[in-house]
Design goal:
Strand order of the largest sheet: 6-7-8-3-9-10
Distance between the termini: 32 Å
Bound molecules: adenosine-5'-diphosphate, magnesium ion
CATH topology: Rossmann fold
CATH superfamily: P-loop containing nucleotide triphosphate hydrolases
Strand content: 25-35%
Order of helices and strands: EEEHEEHEHHHHEHEHEEHH
Length: 233
């Protein structure tokens, strides 16, 4: 589904990724974990066409996507739910969903909106509320809902649990599992490594702009050395 090879990227003259290799197979949940500042967000932003790429290849559904504009990448079926949610605070819930809708992916706005509201009943209930009036957890649901409006084949979630209470985090992860069961492939970036490793199939640990470790999520979860080094356990 997605292959990243030898990715080097950064911001102007500041290189922050020094050779990232990763792969997502169709139907998988892949997690990317690592310390703050390791390069997780930059990796997702590179895949989405939002950073400057110096070297490497990115292939999505068998097609090179490096250098394509972000909208074009989304249109191909790759959606990115950014860190910090980035929803439009002054717009209503429904207007935010409309902003995420990508025409020409075979389904109407109404059709996908109904699916998103079925997945997140609270968004239906509050569809005319301003996004700014929603709680952190509801805003995260809205951010995920907006990404789903693009009908993604692969959805990348950047820190979906950030700043949320444990109970809400569980709800969000339940949703991620449901999305996976519905056939969407996922990349979940998390500082909350333990939770992400519980639900993921495969894991990459990024350290200072490089993939330092990769493996089956349960192997990474249960490796005591990795726990000590990366999971803060
Ligand atoms: N817009 C930017 N301009 C310059 N440097 C940035 C920018 N965004 C992130 N960085 C730097 O890139 C590195 C990786 O950051 P980031 O990808 O956000 O890490 P993570 O998501 O793992 O916390 C950090 O050193 C960070 O300071
Ligand atoms: Mg980040």
């Amino acid at each position: 589904m997605l292959k990243v090879a030898g990715l080097k990227a950064g911001y102007g003259r500041t290189q922050v990724l020094f050779g990232i290799d990763l792969e997502v197979r169709a139907g998988e949940i892949v997690t990317i974990i690592g310390a703050n500042g390791a390069g997780k967000t930059s990796t997702l932003r590179s895949i989405s066409g939002l950073t400057q790429i110096y070297a490497g290849e990115i292939e999505f559904k068998g097609r090179p996507i490096k250098g394509l504009p972000p909208e074009e990448i989304t249109r191909l079926g790759l959606a990115h739910c950014p860190e910090g949610r980035q929803i439009l605070q002054r717009l209503t819930v429904e207007e935010n969903l409309l902003a995420g809708y990508i025409p020409g992916r075979g389904r109407s706005f109404d059709e996908i909106r109904t699916q998103v509201y079925d997945l997140f009943p609270i968004l239906r209930e509050r569809r005319h509320s301003l996004a700014s009036r929603m709680s952190g957890g509801q805003q995260q649901m809205l951010a995920i809902g907006r990404s789903l409006m693009a009908t993604p084949d692969l959805l990348m979630l950047d820190e979906p649990s950030l700043g949320l209470a444990p109970k809400i985090i569980n709800q969000i992860f339940e949703i991620i599992i449901m999305l996976s069961k519905s056939g969407i492939s996922l990349i979940v970036v998390e500082q909350n490594a333990a939770v992400a490793l519980e639900i993921a199939d495969y894991a990459y640990v990024i350290d200072a702009g490089r993939c330092s470790v990769e493996g089956g999520a349960h192997n990474v979860l249960n490796d005591p050395d990795l726990k000590a080094a990366y999971l803060g356990a």
